[in-house]
Amino acid sequence: MPELPEVETVARALQRSIAGRRVLSVTLRMSDFIDDAGALERELPGRTIALVERYGKFMLLRLRRGGDADAANEALLVHLGMTGNLSPFSTEQPLHKHTHVILALDDGRELRYTDPRRFGRMAYLAGSALERELQRFGAEPLQVPERELAQRLQSSHARVKALLLDQRVLRGVGNIYADESLWSARIHPARIGSSLKDAEIRELHQALRKILRHAIRMRGSSISDFVDPEGIPGDYQRRHRAYGREGKECHRCATPIRRMIVAGRSTFYCPSCQRAPRPKGKAKRKAGRRTSKR
DNA sequence: CTCGATCCCTGGACGC
DNA sequence: TGCGTCCAGGGATCGA
After folding, report:
1. Is A245 one of the annotated active-site residues of the chain?
2. In which element (H, E) is residue A53 found?
3. More confident position, A236 or A33
4. Strand C closer than 7 Å to the CB of A240?
5. How many Cβ atoms from other residues are within 10 Å of residue A48's Cβ?
């Protein structure tokens, strides 16, 4: 489930362990998740990994050319999908069954990319192509001002959960942290963006910051088998208040947490703390089934 | 514009 | 023990 906190955890660990290393060679064992495998094979050898940073749910390995001063800004983009893992190994360690990419490093180690489900993605991009790619995504949840968040959410008629998951609106929030933030802010996931009051936006803005920061401190949530490049699992799953807690008592009001599908995803919420929006459209109660066509 | 459905993919859970 | 089935879910894509 790598979402923002998990990717941040991985990026920080890689920054510590591989920044400054030069790529000697590239081995592709499977490449159907790479945008342009040829470019990656051609361009990576000789490049130095100058910096590892997180961009939404992507990791950005900023590259530098060996000798001359950096000309075009270039980077290796890595999306971990659901089960991706990018970690350095010593060459003696046996290859994991689903290791697809191996980058030999100049200190004798190998940076290996493993991803059983191959929901991840990898791409070498430079110059304007890199800029264009990065511009596709919305605001960083930990940077976005409250006013901008309000503008982004209130200008839409989509449901707030769908908006939180939409990487063009906010980059980095996934299913877990969307549910946790909405629970914390007491907002029902099916609420329409434009119906959110300023006070609710404020709650949501603060909830996102609080939860994402806390989760980063705890090195993310390990619910499937997420571990960071040092093999350490996260701890934040123990702090989940909504996600995965169907039938369990709400920590605020003891009402059983419910599960529904919103934006095509399992969505957990407290039916008491997070009030449902209007009659939802199935006003079959007593109004007779006449929907005004306006 | 927004939504649901479908596909990608494998491992784990579950039922018998 | 083993096999079939279902489900998880980020994101792209397509039709409604």
Report:
1. no
2. strand A48-55
3. A33
4. no
5. 17
Whether A79 sits with its Cβ under 7 A from any strand C atom: the answer reads yes
CA distance A250 to A252: 5
Q: Give pLDDT tens digits for A40-59.
A: 999 999 999 999 999 999 99
The catalytically annotated residue of A2, A5, A189, A229 is: A2
| Residue A1 contacts strand C, CB under 7 A | yes
Q: What is the pLDDT of residues A67-81, one digit of tens each?
A: 655 556 999 999 999
What is the DSSP-derived secondary structure letter of residue A286? Answer: S
Note if A45 is an active site residue.
Answer: no
| Residue A75 neighbours by CB under 8 Å, 6+ apart | A60, A61, A62, A63, A124, A125, A126, A130
Quote the pTM value: 0.90
* Nucleotides of chain B touched by protein CB (<7 A): 1-6, 8-12
- What are A130's two structure tokens? 């890199």
